[in-house]
Amino acid sequence: MSKEDMIEFSGTVTELLPNAMFRVKLDNEHMILAHTSGKMRKNRIRVLAGDRVNVEMTPMTSPKVVSPSASSKTMTASGPTGTEGAIRPAFVLASASPRRLDLLAQLGVTPERVFPADIDETPARDEQPRPYVRRMAAEKAQKIASQITEPALVLSADTVVALGHRILPKAETIETARACLRKLSGRRHTVFTAIRCVPSAGWPEGCVSERVVESTVAFSRMTEQQIEALLATGDWQGKAGGYALQGHAAGFIRFISGSPSAVIGLPLFETAQLLRGQPGNWLP
């Protein structure tokens, strides 16, 4: 992209964030998230709170050039600009799952902030898997969105493993994982993954959207020795149904119908659909 295709603004760094990210207050009073340019990283130029900086932004409309001050450092905005130089809001993932971060990276999306949502995940009495997973994703997204005052889009996800109408627990102990694997051995089961996008109060242009993806997975019959070998890997920890498709359990899965990425924790196609449906240039 040529220099003529960029918009420059001047501003002041107000907060240092992880992964070389910064919060910048522009001279026009807008708050944005930005990261250091490649030239700054190459020259090892440090940025501190209170520093004056130039911010280069990719326009979605006609470029508007703002003359930088001589003392400014150059940074790059974390998102494209919108109408009249408006900045795309921060992208927040309401999950601390490394698997979901890795899957988002396959779409070329990196959250500016990651906030795990601490909610009560106990199923209601007689609650079915599909309504349950929708409710979990909705509660996670809403809890995080309600805590953010700046413009932001919150993405949440929840995954459950079900045998018929029975929801299998998330394996927090080896005993729970062992019981789940014994139930799944030699049988088909269903994996439901719900995703939900919720805008924060600071971004009224955003819209609430959701998808629920249903996949079928079949395990081969496993001996007790094989189950114990799976448990010894530790892949079961914190996993719905006590296994991870991307882990050692893959050697016992003989059939999948649906979305493999949804079984792992984030359906990529449906996530891309939700992001494309939001205002702004989230995905091509």
TrEMBL record:
EC category: hydrolase
Gene Ontology biological process terms, A to Z: nucleotide metabolic process
Site description Important for substrate specificity, residues in chain: 99, 159, 246
Required cofactor names: a divalent metal cation
Location of the region described as Disordered in the Swiss-Prot/TrEMBL record: 61-82
UniProt subunit comment: Component of the 30S ribosomal translation pre-initiation complex which assembles on the 30S ribosome in the order IF-2 and IF-3, IF-1 and N-formylmethionyl-tRNA(fMet); mRNA recruitment can occur at any time during PIC assembly.
Name by which UniProt lists this protein: Multifunctional fusion protein
